[in-house]
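Try this one yourself first.
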C-alpha cells in the first residue's frame, strides 16, 4: 500500500513539474532534483525492505540490481546536468508564476 501511495505521489509531483518547466520558473531545477532524489531513495529502500521481509526468496537477482543501478546512474546524470548546466541557469530564471509559455 505504501509503495502504491508513493508511486501516485511521484506521478502527481511529475505532473506538477510541468507548470514550472514551461513557465521557466527558477524553482524548477530544485523541484526536479528533489523528486529525482526521493525517487531513487525510495527505489533502493523499497528493494532493501522487500529483500529483508522475504529472505526465503531470491528477489535481488542480476536484472533487478542492474535496473536499480541504471535508474540511479540515469537520475544522477540528469541531476548533475541540471545543477551544472549554464543553459539551465539561464533558462529557469522566472521567480513569479507568470512565465511565458512557449
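Now uncover the answer:
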Amino acid at each position: 500500500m505504501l509503495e502504491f501511495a508513493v508511486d501516485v505521489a511521484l506521478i502527481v509531483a511529475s505532473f506538477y513539474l510541468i507548470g514550472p518547466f514551461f513557465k521557466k520558473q527558477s524553482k524548477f531545477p530544485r523541484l526536479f532534483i528533489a523528486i529525482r532524489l526521493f525517487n531513487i531513495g525510495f527505489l533502493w529502500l523499497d528493494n532493501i525492505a522487500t529483500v529483508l521481509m522475504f529472505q526465503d526468496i531470491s528477489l535481488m537477482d542480476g536484472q533487478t540490481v542492474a535496473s536499480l543501478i541504471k535508474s540511479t546512474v540515469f537520475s544522477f546524470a540528469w541531476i548533475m546536468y541540471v545543477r551544472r548546466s549554464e543553459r539551465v541557469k539561464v533558462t529557469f530564471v522566472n521567480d513569479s508564476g507568470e512565465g511565458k509559455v512557449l
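Discussion: The longest helix spans residues 28-53. The chain has four helices and no strands.
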